[in-house]
Amino acid sequence: MSKNDAYYSSPPLRRTHEEMREIAGKTTGENYCCNHKPLHNIILDELHLMLRVTDILIENLIEDAMQWDDKEGCLSAKKRSVEKSQHVINLVKCLFPACIKVMYQFQ
């Protein structure tokens, strides 16, 4: 990390609950993407936070592999026959080796 732990929780970056409520109440202008008022007495659960981030990253990987397959399928339709979802299959093999048997049963 380039900054120490106290950097973001010290003034001027630190916000109070009152400031967060005011920012969340704004519909236009600088609301810093705060759509809802803050909750009190919430302890961050690192496991669930990491699961949410990982879910979004894996979704992006799958979408990229599908787009890559579509793009390559259009380019290679005239040249050679390539399995339609080869990049998605390779991604699943890397990320979820236990799912390979199940995936091939449904093809």
How far do the termini sit from each other?
45 Å
Mind telling me the C-alpha Rg? 23 Å
Q: What do the pLDDT scores average to?
A: 76
Element string (H = helix, E = strand): HHHH
Approximately how much beta-strand content do the residues carry?
A: under 5%
Count the beta strands. Answer: 0
Largest sheet: none
* Count of DSSP H/I helices: 4
Helicity range of the residues? 40-55%
Low-confidence stretches: none
Q: Structural class, please?
A: mainly alpha
Write the layout of secondary structure elements.
Elements (H helix, E strand, L loop, with lengths): L16 H9 L20 H31 L9 H10 L4 H6 L2
Question: Would you mind describing this structure in some detail?
Answer:
This protein has 107 residues and is an all-alpha fold. It has two domains: 1-42, no CATH class; 43-107. It is 52% helix and 0% strand. α2 (46-76) packs antiparallel against α3. The protein starts with 16 loop residues before the first helix and ends with a helix. The mean pLDDT is 76.
